[in-house]
Structures are given as C-alpha cells and as structure tokens.
Amino acid sequence: MRTDLLAGAGVGLAAYxxxxxxxxxxxxLLLLAALGAAVAAAGHARGTPPGLxxxxxxxxxSTSITFDDIGGQDTAKRELREALDFVIQRQAAARLGxxxxxxxxxxxxxxxxxxxxxxxxxxxxxSAFLSxxxxxxxxVYAGVGAQRVRTLFQRARQAARETPSRSAVLFIDELExxxxxxxxxxxxxxxxxxxNQLLVEMDxxxxxxxxxxxxxxTNRVDLLDEALLRPGRFDRVVRVDLPDRRGRREIxxxxxxxxxxxxxxxxxxxxxxxYGFSGAHLEAxxxxxxxxxxxxxRSRIExxxxxxxxEKVLLGERADxxxxxxxxxxxxxxxAGHALISEMLQPGxxxxxxIVSRGAALGYVRQRPQDDVWLQxxxxxxxxxxxxxxxxxxxxxxxxEASTAAGDDLRRVxxxxxxxxxxxxxxxxxxxxxxxxVDAVQQVRAEITAALLEDVEAALARHRPALDRLAQxxxxxxxxxxxEARRELGHLEPPAPxxxxxxxxxxxxxxxxxxxxxxxxxxxxxxxxxxx
Length: 532
Ligand code: ATP
What we know:
Largest sheet: 5 strands, parallel
CATH architecture of the largest domain: Up-down Bundle
Number of helices: 20
CATH class of the largest domain: Mainly Alpha
Bound molecules: adenosine-5'-triphosphate
Number of strands: 9
Radius of gyration: 30 Å
Helix content: 40-55%
Order of helices and strands: HHHHEHEHEHHEHEHHHHHEEHHHHEHHE
C-alpha cells in the first residue's frame, strides 16, 4: 500500500477518535504509530530497502538528454544506437531469435560523457532511467551490497512497467567498484557476493516481461572480472574517448549556445588550443569564462575570458604565493628556455608563456598543438623531449646549475626516452625493454638523454640574446601571448639537419599512448610545461 494512503487513513482515524472522545485511551498507541509512519516514510523517500539501515542506490533523475546534446563521440553514439535498436524493435529481433540485449559497457576517461550517453540511451528508447554508482553498493556488512543489487533491479522493473515501452535503462557508474575481479578485495566476501548478485540479476533479465538494459561505465576496464564481459552480460563494449578537435568544437558550441559572445571569440581556435580536454573540462572552461566576464561586469564572454579559463582549468586557480625576485628571474629563464626551443623546432607552437604561479606550477609554457596527432616518429618524440629539457638547460646555462623546477620535466623526458626504446626506435632496434639486458637499455637511455641535452644547450647558447630578451620581458610583464613571445625571440635559426630516424619507424604501435593522456594522466590535459 502506498505511504500517502496510509497517512490519509491515519489522519482520518485520529479525527474520528478526537471527535468521539476516545483519544485518551489510544494516545500512546497513536504516538507510536505516527513514529512508525514517519520512519517508514523517511525510509521510502531515501529508498531504504526493507531491513537495511542505509539508503539503497537507484536514483531516478528526470532525463530529457538526447544524443544531439552530446558533442563529438560519433562512434560511441553510433554503436550505442545500433545496440539500442534491438530494444526498440524487440519483436522483430525476437522473430529472428536475437537474444535480448542485457548490458552495454561504456569505457573511457572521466568526463567524456558516459553518463550523458546513458541518459540519451533512455530517451532514445523511451525507457525509464535509473542510476547508481558502484560505491553505493559496498558496505562492511556482508550481504548488504547483494541485497541492494536485488532491490535495484526490482526498482528498474517497476519503473519499466510505468513506461509505454515497458523498458528501463539501469546505469551503473564506477562499475569497477563492484565488478572488480573476484577474490582480489580485502573484504572480498562482501565484494564477491555483490558481484555474484549482479551476474545473477543480469542472467535473469529475460525471465521478466519488462526489458531492463544495464549500462555500466568504467575508467578501468582492466580491473573488471572476466565474468562480467562474457557474452550475454556486458557483451557490447563502447569506447568513449577524449574528443578530437572536431568533437571539442561541437562540445564547445553546445555549451556556448545561448550565451552572449563577443565577436572576438573564435571557437575553432579554442577547440585547437584545448587538446587533451574532456567534455567536462570544456564545460568547465565555458563556465569559468562566464564567471570571469560576470566578475568584470561585462555583458558578453570575450576571447580573453576563455583564454584565462583554459589556463585555470588546466593548472588551477592563480596562487597567492609571490616568489622572490631571484626565483622569478630563474623561473623566467626556465620558461623562456622551453618557449625558445619550442619555437625553434616548430615556429608558431607557443600559445602562451607565463611566470604567474598557478596550482603547483611557478610558471608554464602552453604549446599549441597544430592538430590532433595519432602517431609520432622518433624525431617528433625527440623534439618533445628537447622542449621538456630546455627549462633545465636554460637554468644551467644562465645560473650554472638547475633547480627543483625541472623535476617534472625530467620525468617527462624519461617517459619519452622509454617510449622511444619500447617502440623499437632506438639503436637497440625492436627489443622488449623489460627483457633486454638491463645494462644495455640503461646505456641507451643515458646516450639518448645526453645527446638531446647537448643539442638543447648548444641551441640555447647560440640564441642567448633571444633567451635574455624573452626572460627579461617575462620578468617584467609576467604573461606573454604566443605572438608577444615570438616578437621578443625574433628569427630563430633552425637546428642543423638531424640524421634521419630509422626508415619507416614510428611509434604507431603506441600511437594512442604517445599523444593522448595515458590512463594515469587522464586527469591532466597535456601540452604545458610547468615549472613546479
Ligand atoms: P565520469 O567517468 O567521471 O563519471 P562521465 O564520462 O560519465 O564522467 P559525464 O558525467 O557524462 O562524464 O559528463 C560530465 C559533464 O561534462 C556533462 O554534464 C557535460 O556538461 C560535460 N560533457 C562531457 N562530455 C560531453 C560531451 N561529449 N558533450 C557535451 N558535454 C559533455
């Protein structure tokens, strides 16, 4: 029976008793009943399953998101639509004996629109939408998670019954929390029981007349128990990647739609400058820009607000700390070194350079990627390493020794050198660097790094006047646009021709890892050279 009917009956009974004078005798009873009703109503509102003390997952947010509200992700949208067509044309699919779709797994970095896609899937199929997050199932008490999974599927079927299509989309975010490999967790019994229950529910989906499609999302598909990926469970895996330039443009357009924009806003340029950003980053850029415009009392969002917002989203809020003049001079040379080498190797590549502290960085150079790249040659990888080494080399050239500002840069150089070796682009050829003799690999690492550093030091020494000019200007003005930096640098003699890289060798095998942020680096868009 529904809680509101119970409440109505209670009020009616109370009125009758007061009217007939019987209230004294039943007052304690009424009080108890009222308390019980309040507890039941609160439990109902929080979704507490019977006998459990905590809220059960399974929120049902209103959803009117469509696939048109999601920028980029064309492949993911197409694959998802194809899979969902079985749900819409259930009868026709059944005639051909096609097994009903039970689960779709969306995998990819955070903030790329997996939740949006699940909500759009519900709209597309005219289904009810329920969502829960893996973390909500896990309690220290064994059996609680499994009970929650059961309750969630019951609710999904209930919600499906209320729709004309008799279907529901059940979205489970952070699936790896409950779907991790069994036997791995510390309190493994609880985790295993929860996962087992999820498997049981998914296997039993076809036994009910309502159609429930489970859409799971995870950033760590590698952690999932194989049983979940078995045919008949999450047998459709859809990758939701970081958007490419066209995708970023579409996402920016969606979020800028309806906002007042100044004529100097160039969405194309913004899409180019936001390489490595997820949809959530781009949404944050637009929001931050609007806040900046509002704080400055402007009626429109201008290009400068968007540029400032990109830096803020990339590196965090401007920090209050004010380094000493000596430190600022060192940071100015460090950043000028990065900018000089970047411009020398690829003219027009610097988007901005600053010695204003943001987040943990004391200054940084933001590079403008010419376009999304999917593979890199040895020369390109080496050029990236040269730019990374340039801050360290500039400090050594000018002050005689480097500082801790170069720590992150050197880690990046080490990563690049590792990639060169692993892709078979070093003089060792195609080796498995894990199994090759440690000494040989170590020697090649040292050789490559030393040669790159030598190049960079020579180039900086050759261009010392330009380095001094840029560092001085940075020290005075703190932030320079790419154009301003290029004016200070003037013409930079290109480097002497380098010997060609081994024919036909690129890091193609590692293309994605080479240029897109890797799983650990997903949170942080690339392309900047901070001195921290
Ligand atoms: P997580 O893995 O962290 O749960 P997610 O992949 O589910 O993230 P969403 O929650 O769908 O990401 O996206 C967060 C926000 O980012 C959205 O509400 C939206 O504002 C914005 N966003 C992300 N991707 C897109 C996109 N492709 N188009 C438009 N907006 C997007």
